[in-house]
Sequence to fold (486 residues):
Amino acid sequence: MSAKSQLALKIEKVKLQQAKLEWNRKNKLTLIARSWYDWQHRFNALTKDNLSALLMAANQVGKSRTGCSIDAYHLLGEYPEDWEGHKFDFPPLCWLLGYSGEKTRDLLQKKLFGDLVEGEFTGGYIPKEKILGKIPMTGTPRAMREVQVQHVRGIARCQFWSYSQGQHALMGDVVDWYHIDEEPEDPEIYPQVVTRTINGDMGKGGRGILTFTPENGKTELVCNFMDEDNPGQAMMTATWDDAPHITEEKKVIILANYPPYQRDMRSKGVPLMGAGLIFEMDEDWVKCDRFEIPLHFKIINGMDFGWDHPWAMIQLAIDEDNDVIYVTHAFKKSKLEPHRAWRATKNWAEGVPVAWPSDGLQTRETGKEKRDTYIEEGFYLLDEHATWEAGGVSVNLGIVKMNAMFKNGQLRIFSDLHEAFEELRQYHTKTMPDGSAKIVKIKDDIIDAIRYAIMMKREAIYKQDLIADDDYEDDYYRDDASAMGY
Fold:
């Protein structure tokens, strides 16, 4: 081949490479969507039927990347054929929020629009040709307050806000779409953002997503999304195991550099437990498969009263021979009247003594004590509220006892009681201004019910006693019927 031909081939190869790079630049968003994992598709699909969707995930699995690519599609209006999430048929106003102007610039703005070079964006998920205008953010170099984007039906606006501005800066606008990246410490930010969406999406109500690792712990926002009873919102988790780009070798190396108390939060997206996780237990050690409770085991129930926070009841089965207590039943639900609570638990609650807390002595509007309304429905509440055998109602004593029992294999939980494990793995303390640690009283209803039952296990009855009573009753009526000639 002649030198001239070789040169022509090299030139053609360079042109092809340049064309490929140019195509990749213009179609970066398409390439990202094609590389989505299954869980990213499922998270996007949640936005179709929910006004708020939370991706509570581990570090480095692609939270911001997922959220920003969804944002970009809404700003452009060029949805792929297999798009399962919500669609706007007009150019929306989108809010993207982060900790500060610097964070919104580096974590959100840069992904969507690229770097700012000589006053112009280089392009990111959104090609530079689609970027029509911009308004700078005061006080933060190269950060934008607003960027206008060429949407297929007009001009969409992307506005950036920081939590440091406070909730008052977020008042006034009607928002179609929002993306909260990283959890705001100010609990007023999220409600204010949601309020802005009420008349969004042409009056149908706007919607949005949250993407964060729960470093603030078991906050009210986190717990709100973890409550499956809340309509219009959904939550998805993603761990390192859901992100194949994080190799096993990387997992081992990175995890070793985290303090033990942070490892589940960093690698699994499990909420960090404030000042400390209270029950530092091995779930596999505590769990056990469900089995038929022998007649010689003792049983007792524990009840935690509630309305806005759930009413809860559990049952313990006590194996005195081997000094092991099993949690065999657990039920909780908010806004549950006593008669509905009875119907929900009667099959395992009937005839079983129930330990209950002192707030059962509170008088209701009817003039009756709270405990009496449950007794009238059929619950066998003990005569006195729960106390330790030596006296007192110390919560700390209960925590110490339960922790020791978990570690020693003396307190086991049937593996299908998922809500019990959810509470246990998130029960934590937070540090107060004076340096003391305080138990965070959120989603601890089953835990409290277990504690009350342990406090009063001296009042437990043998399972045989329940069976014997039933058998006696059956025999009585059978004999009575025989005597009458039936």
Q: What stands out?
A: The CA atoms of residues 30 and 80 lie 8 Å apart. The first strand starts at residue 52 and ends at 57. Confidence is low (pLDDT under 50) at residues 472-486. The radius of gyration is 29 Å.
